């Protein structure tokens, strides 16, 4: 016996949006744990000491080549 974690979503009616592909000819014991509502995101704001003091000038995304960031592409 082994455990595999699946996160399933339901629609407005409580029906599953999509069914996972499961191994054939097996039995499953299922325990449902309801996750907290993910639609209530907390809006992030900068610290009051720097709020309104930062100004972006120019292209910040292409200012340094990707090789300088040590990305494994």
UniProtKB/TrEMBL annotation:
Source organism superkingdom: Bacteria
Name under which the protein is recorded: Uncharacterized protein
Species whose genome carries this gene: Thiothrix subterranea
